[in-house]
């Protein structure tokens, strides 16, 4: 049975930190003139995207190609899914063609977990309904690590404010887990109608008034309004949302100088964030996308790389102290060798 990444819970703090270390190595690979290593040569990665995606799908494809893996990309609209083939049959078909890993995006929470029951291949959850999006959270943690510096990969002492449609956001769920695992304090801000009905067990505070928390925020994480996930009217109007919870120019002025603004994309400029504020230096949306590639290389290498020791827990497999096995030399050859 292969290892899978279905939730941030599969990693825990030590696992996240190990992926961060590995991402550093792959960021170095990505900066080479030929950003490719033979680490996963001979492996086949099947991308099953049942929901629209730009960043995540292309980022996984770029990551797989930089590791020299073969990619089977599956466009639902031009596949037999449109003839009614089930997810299970599709997985088994691609498994029979030799897929070593499935990268799965689906509108239903739990879809990636189901896929992991139907195959012996590794499975990565690339977003399942409202549930989780673990590689987005890893890309975000890595972006913060690069911005705030330090070798320790910790967020202790940082205050992250997550704003908006928490209820429908898989990014919020994964980021609450990842940020708090790394030691950050998290406050959720937004209209009561866009908060999950039950927050028992979430290690967060909740606030309605964004102005009150901004002066004390190190990270402001803006979420997109997920209109595709709701048919009820949860807001009086988009204009009112922007007036109360948008990062307007006036609100941006409340932020301390050290603050970083993040958004998982796609951004609705003028709704969650003022268009001009979105282009300021403290808004690291471009870095989140850029860092997504080495982070996904790290995840795929962790799942499929032959150079890693085997084991059930990623905390053991990628133990911080055992990081030497994952230095660039063990990942693959230099540019010269792959030409
Ligand atoms: N791209 C992210 C996701 O797939 C965020 C969003 O769509 O709002 O969940």
Overview of the structural elements:
Helix 1 packs across helix 5, helix 1 crosses helix 11 and helix 2 packs across helix 11. The radius of gyration is 20 Å and the shape is globular. It starts with 11 loop residues before the first helix and ends with a helix. The protein is an alpha/beta fold and 339 residues long. The strands form two sheets. A five-stranded parallel beta sheet has the order 7-6-5-8-9. It has a four-stranded parallel beta sheet with strand order 2-1-3-4, sandwiched between helices. The C terminus is likely disordered. Helix 2 links the parallel strand 1 and strand 2. It folds into two domains: 143 residues, Aspartate/ornithine carbamoyltransferase (Rossmann fold), CATH 3.40.50; 153 residues, 3-Layer(aba) Sandwich (Rossmann fold), CATH 3.40.50.1370.
Query: Hetero groups bound?
Result: aspartic acid
Give the assembly state of these chains: single chain
Q: Indicate the CATH class of the largest domain.
A: Alpha Beta
Might you state the CATH topology name of the largest domain?
A: Rossmann fold
Strand order of the largest sheet: 7-6-5-8-9
Strand content: 5-15%
> Helix count, per DSSP?
14
Shape assignment: globular
Low-confidence stretches: 307-330, 332-339
Q: How far from one another are the termini? A: 34 Å
Over the alpha carbons, how many angstroms does the gyration radius reach?
20 Å
Level of helix content?
Answer: 25-40%
Largest β-sheet summary? 5 strands, parallel
How many β-strands, per DSSP?
A: 9
Query: In CATH terms, what is the architecture of the largest domain?
Result: 3-Layer(aba) Sandwich
The structural domain count equals: 2
Order of helices and strands: HEHEHEHEHEHEEHEHHEHHHHH
CATH homology group of the largest domain: Aspartate/ornithine carbamoyltransferase
């Amino acid at each position: 049975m292969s290892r899978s990444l279905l939730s941030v819970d599969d990693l825990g703090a030590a696992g996240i930190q190990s992926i961060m270390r590995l991402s550093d190595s792959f960021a170095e690979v990505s900066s080479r003139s030929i950003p490719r290593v033979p680490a996963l040569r001979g492996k086949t990665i099947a991308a099953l995207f049942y929901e629209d995606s730009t960043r995540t799908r292309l980022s996984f494809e770029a990551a797989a190609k930089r590791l020299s893996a073969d990619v089977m990309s599956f466009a639902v609209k031009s596949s037999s899914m449109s003839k009614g083939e089930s997810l299970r049959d599709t997985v088994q078909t691609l498994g029979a063609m030799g897929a070593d890993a499935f990268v799965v995006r689906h509108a239903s929470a739990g879809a990636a977990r189901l896929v992991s029951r139907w195959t012996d291949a590794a499975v990565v959850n690339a977003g399942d309904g409202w549930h989780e999006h673990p590689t987005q959270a890893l890309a975000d943690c890595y972006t913060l690590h690069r911005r705030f510096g330090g070798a320790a990969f910790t967020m202790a002492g940082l205050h992250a404010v997550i704003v908006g449609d928490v209820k429908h956001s898989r990014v919020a769920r994964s980021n609450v887990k990842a940020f708090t695992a790394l030691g950050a304090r998290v406050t959720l801000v937004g209209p009561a109608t866009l908060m999950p009905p039950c927050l028992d067990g979430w290690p967060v505070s909740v606030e309605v008034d964004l102005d009150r928390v901004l002066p004390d925020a190190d990270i402001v994480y803006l979420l997109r309004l997920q209109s595709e996930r709701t048919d009820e009217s949860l807001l009086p109007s988009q204009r009112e949302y922007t007036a109360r919870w948008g990062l307007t120019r006036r609100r941006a002025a409340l932020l301390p100088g050290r603050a970083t603004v993040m958004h998982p994309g796609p951004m609705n400029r003028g709704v969650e964030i003022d268009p001009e504020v979105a282009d300021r230096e403290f808004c690291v949306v471009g870095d989140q996308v850029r860092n997504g590639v080495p982070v996904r290389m790290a995840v795929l290498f962790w799942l499929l790389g032959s150079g890693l020791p085997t084991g059930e827990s990623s905390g053991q497999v990628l133990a911080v102290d055992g990081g030497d096995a994952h230095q660039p030399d063990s990942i693959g050859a230099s540019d010269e060798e792959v030409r």
